[in-house]
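Running log. JK asked me to keep both predictions on one page so they can be read side by side. First protein, sequence followed by its tokens:
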Amino acid sequence: MRTGHDLELVHVTKRYGGSAVAVSDVSHLFAGGSYVCLLGPSGCGKSSTLRMIAGHETVTEGSILLEGKDVTRLPPAKRGTAMMFQSYALFPHLSVTDNVAFSLKMKGVDGAARRAKAAEMLELVDMQRYADRLPSQLSGGQQQRVALARALITGPQVLLLDEPLSALDPFLRVRMRGELKRLQRELGISFIHVTHGQDEALALADEIVVMNNAKIEQAGPAREVFNAPATEFVARFMGGHNVVSLPRGRFAIRCDEIRLVSGPEGQLSGQEAVVQAVEYQGAHVALTVRAAGDQEIVALIPEAAFFERPKQPGDAVRLAWDEGRLHRLHA
């Protein structure tokens, strides 16, 4: 479901202490009703970008527009966004219901109306049966759901999530990914989700915005960013790719596109590589090899194929791939 609430960053810069640049001249249009992941390593500027959108950080230069309206200087409660913090930041002395209803209390909404609205939100995140508990009586995943309900109760046009799954164990993280995606679809509002996890971004995002060194390195649909990385940084950061130097430039090729062959075939026909490491990964075996020009290349070999003709570190192998699967990288 697409809403009209587009969010736009126009030449946004954030400096700390005059010289340290956290975000440098970033412009981007976040389509209304989409799930966007801001992805990148620690210190790349993604959390600063999110906090500026929320109004928790001032913008040094540039503008933030929501539905065409300039919200750059508005306080957080007045701009149509809501933020869910990494730490959840629940009030320990308040019940689940009162935590969720807190922002409505601050707005002067009467008790019965805000409790009714809080009950509706708790039902949305499947937490209605815990309404009277304190945060300390909840698991991490349950606290997260309460924090989500509290962020959603104001009816934001854009929900901002700062590494919301980082505190959860791997099994719960995967389950909550599904919950977030379901909620976003049901509500039809934009979710902008900061993460440094490539798997998380690929699983959730309609659009991935990859940040590096305070700038946007590449933005596009999840599948496009993974299969057609624009730069060496994106190829390496997304994972699942090799970056190879060939006489005509630098290219990315997916690890699962590389084959082991016995005769001359493909780009590296007849060129030997030496196995450095073998790692069993379940459906695949990851083979790290060193090829000509001291290039380290990872090949993901289907499990059955590998164990038909297993390899050990030190073994000589030949690699091949289809020319059409090479993806040229820009500087």
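And the second, directly underneath as requested:
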Amino acid sequence: MAERPTTNWRRGMAKEAAKLAAGTLDPDCACMIELLPEELLLETDAVLDGFEAELPTLTEGHDAQIFAAVERVVLALNAVNAAHDECALETDEREQLCAYIDKALTEQGVDVAALTARHGLGRHELTDRWRDW
């Protein structure tokens, strides 16, 4: 299964905390804990739980079904971002979430490049129609 961005974020937070504890990172340069509060991580994981539960039902060639799943996960992530003053998901987090959605679909057997091309989109435009973050 594709690695969740939240797993990567937690790993980064742990590294930052270790550097702070070791005195090798200036506290003024530590930002991950503030940027990614636990509530945000839990809410994001809940959204990704729903998406991952839906993945086994998605099959190549059922474009409407696949796009509906992408729409649901993106709208749910929009709601998480909105609950955090529209600033929870910065550029790196956005890119990781989009890459995760793409990879999770690919691992399920969906040819994302072909899917988006059939609808006049570039591969990296998969989430753009619904994404506010």
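Observation for JK regarding the second prediction: The chain has a mean pLDDT of 95.
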